[in-house]
Amino acid sequence: MVQARKSRKGKKKLASSHNKSWIWGRHAVLEILEAGRWPVQELLLGDSLDTDALDHANQLADALSIRIKIEPSERLRELARTAEHQGYLAKMKPFPYTALNVLDDLLQTNETNPAIAILDRIQDPHNFGAIVRSAEVLGIAAVIIGVADQAEVTPAVARASAGAVNHIPIIQVDDLTRTVADLSKHDITLIAATEKGTPLNTSNAFGKETRNASAIILGNEGEGISKELLNQCAALILIPRHGKIQSLNVAAAAAILFYEATRNR
Question: What pTM, to 2 d.p., does this model score?
Answer without folding.
Answer: 0.87
